[in-house]
Amino acid sequence: MRHTRPSVSASILAAVRNRNKRPMGVTRIVRNDLLIASYNVHKCVGIDKKFDPDRIAHVIGEIGADVIAIQEADKRFGERSGLLDLARLHRENSLVPVPVTSLYPKGHGWHGNLLLFREGVVRRVQQLGLPGLEPRGALVVDIDLEAGPLRIIAAHLGLLRHSRQQQSEAIVRAVQSDPGRPTLLMGDLNEWRVGKGSSLHFLHPVFDPAKNAVPSFPSRFPVLALDRVLGHPHNLVTAIEVHDTPLARVASDHLPIKAHVDLKSALAESEVRDKASLAR
Questions:
Q1: Is residue 23, in this structure, part of any structural domain at all?
Q2: Does residue 94 carry a pLDDT above 50?
Q3: HEC profile for 158-208?
Q4: CB 179 within 8 A of CB 171
Q5: Which one, 107, 161, 233, 269, has the greatest CB density within 10 A?
Q6: What pLDDT shows up at residue 156?
Q7: What is the pLDDT of residue 180?
Q8: HSE on the CB side for 182, CA within 13 Å?
Q9: How high is the pLDDT of residue 78?
Q10: Is residue 4 part of a domain?
């Protein structure tokens, strides 16, 4: 059977149909799980072309995430200085950055990727360089949370499909080299396609890129699911929603996305599988 690649127009139409299914506003679901978020802040430049880090800080406060991955947190050129007020984010939201080593002392992140968390102990940080024509990277962070151990890969993939394919393969290799922890891949993955026509197809079978995709770009009328939170095992992420508020629609060209993560259940099921495997 011949497989055809989904066209851009077909992907947009599917996303438009899914818009009405998106939870709206800032109401948080009553939950016992973790709230994880991803947000491309567009270097704090809104769709009105204004540089306004204050708006971004307000949106981060609206989200109220336990862990949030930020993309484009640093300037792209020159000193690559950080653009957010980290002291304010700590003061108002109890969020602290995962420490990174950078060639640019004033920068916040690794290739613009910044990971903030509310509570937990960081056990390991790997600054993964990603292949491709553009300089890209991912943060691979092992963190012990109250709910249990978790690995988070915070990434911003390239604009070119071939580069995204290579980057997806590099991320899978990083996971498979040490598969002991439940893992989240999160960030702006710059891909709207699903199925075999997608560069994210190369994340299989570790992640399922077609699962829980919600449109997040452009922020005024989101039709493309560029931003993702993917879980391994696949039941780790129980729900995805877009954070669609009046301020978020203006503050960046991407809307933030939020994922509900049931770490305790994923760990319990993993223990059952491990025991069943040993009993064979």
A1: no
A2: yes
A3: CCCHHHHHHHHHHHHHHHHCCCCCCEEEEEECCCCCCHHHCHHHHHCCCCC
A4: no
A5: 107
A6: 97
A7: 81
A8: 24
A9: 62
A10: no
What is the number of domains present in the chain?
1
CA 161 – CA 164 distance, rounded (Å): 5
CB 8 within 8 A of CB 192: yes
Q: What is the mean pLDDT of residues 255-280?
A: 77
Adjacency order of strands within the sheet including 67-71: 96-97, 114-117, 67-71, 34-40, 257-261, 237-242
Residue 230 Rama label (left phi>0; alpha psi -120 to 50; beta): beta
Is 27 part of a structural domain of the chain? no
For the residues 172-186, what does the mean pLDDT come to? 90
Considering only CA atoms, which of 60, 122, 44, 56 is closest in space to residue 93? 60
Q: Are 33 and 263 in contact (CB under 8 A)?
A: yes
| Predicted local confidence at residue 2, as pLDDT | 41
Residue range 57-83, pLDDT digits in tens: 999 999 999 999 999 999 876 667 899
Q: What is the CATH number of the domain that holds 115?
A: 3.60.10.10
**DSSP code at position 47:** T
Are 51 and 60 in contact by the 8 Å Cβ rule? The answer is no
Query: Residue 136: is it exposed, middle or buried by C-beta count within 10 angstroms (0-12/13-18/19+)?
Result: buried
pLDDT, one tens digit per residue, over 194-236 is 778 899 999 999 999 988 899 999 999 999 999 999 999 999 9
Q: What is the pLDDT at residue 22?
A: 47
Question: 């943060």: which residue's tokens?
Answer: 139
Helix (H, G, I), strand (E, B) or coil at 37: strand
Q: Which residue has the tokens 């301020």?
A: 247
3-state secondary structure of 15: helix
Determine the structural domain holding residue 147 and report its residue range: 11-18+32-279
Cα separation, 233 vs 264, in Å, equals 12
